[in-house]
Design brief:
Elements: H1 8-57, H2 63-147
Length: 148
């Protein structure tokens, strides 16, 4: 006699939903790392521009060149601001996906536990039935031995 859980498709569905939530969470973490790396590149670019501006300003240089470097630094600053917004948005998505994953994990655990309880009830009923059959066999043998 084998155990067949009548709600197994739901348990499987909950497992699939959890797997999908794990994938979405991992993808959002990857996007966040990419956004953070891009922001770090912009910070590096800005530091390089500041050093170039500093070095250029220490020697005789036309004012237009200094203004051009300063304007480029301002452009990089604007890109940094937009990139910070991108990092923040990615962080929000990561938190949202993490909560979603946690909910899916809890949901799956509830259904797996229900299946485990049903399996335990099945085993107990099966063992009780088996014990009753063994007791019945023992009674029949005892009765046969008493008569014969």
């Amino acid at each position: 006699m084998s155990f067949r859980y009548h709600l197994q498709k739901i348990v499987d569905l909950k497992g699939s939903e959890k797997s999908m939530a794990e994938w979405e969470y991992a993808a959002s973490l990857g996007k966040l790392r990419k956004e953070e790396e891009q922001l770090e590149l912009l910070y590096d670019e800005r530091r390089g521009l500041e050093q170039a501006l500093q070095a250029t300003s220490e020697k005789p240089t036309p004012m237009t060149e200094l203004l051009m470097l300063q304007r480029y630094i301002e452009i990089v600053d604007e890109r940094i601001i937009r990139q910070r917004e991108g990092v923040h948005a990615a962080e929000v998505i990561v938190r949202k996906r993490q909560v979603h994953l946690t909910n899916k994990m809890v949901d799956e655990k509830v259904w797996v536990n229900a299946r485990e309880r049903a399996l335990e009830r099945f085993r107990s009923a099966w063992l009780a039935k088996e014990q009753n059959e063994l007791d019945e066999i023992a009674i029949v043998r005892a009765a046969s031995a008493a008569r014969g």
